[in-house]
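Can anyone check this?
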Amino acid sequence: MSRTELIGGFHPVREALRHRPHQVLRVLVSDRRGGPRRREIEELAARHGVAVDVAAAATLDRLGVPSHNGFAAEVRPAPAGGGGDSELIVLLEDVQDPRNLGALLRVCEGAGVGQVLVRDRGSAPLSPVATRASAGASEWLAVERIVNPAQELARLKADGFWVYGAAAGGTAPWEIDLTGRVALCIGGEEKGLRQRTRSLCDALVGLPMRGHVESLNVATAAAALLYEALRQRESAHAGGR
């Protein structure tokens, strides 16, 4: 029998119904939920022939779906693959807070990242909390758990990727060519990138801090870096027309 998992929250359930309805086995809606969000979920489910079960909120709690907000779905695991830029890859290591992981995935999907590699050991799992924090973005991304970042970076370099590591004091992103094949490595909330990963980067990239705080939230910093990459890539594409 195929393995299934539960996802919770309005946005993750909606994106699953929009993006991969053939893998949604059923939807659960709390009997306390009403209004336009419930109607939207029910209409999407009906459109794709997915059963909707109305359940008590306590039932959803007992199923172990955190932060479900009245919506959950039983789904088959998302397949590998995404619709982003295959030449823009992000490697994450030691991001321990699932909410930060979800926020990072939301940023990556918004910036058109083709694949996200997550160091398995020391990183938060792609749990319902992370999925909900991603606001459904995890449904659209190719996310792969990896064991050995050094091996992955060696493979990427062999494929012609330039590898950049996000670090305080690094070169400003607008001073680096972020077009072409680019892999951006982002470290955890407390210590950033591991020394081994830093040593394998072709250059370190960072954001100048002009205020009184020393650093930004990891997802906020990633957004600034990735959207500078997106700006450069779109400008290069427009110039090549």
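Reply from J.R.: I decoded it. The helical segments are 10-19, 35-47, 57-62, 98-110, 128-133, 149-158, 195-200, 218-239.
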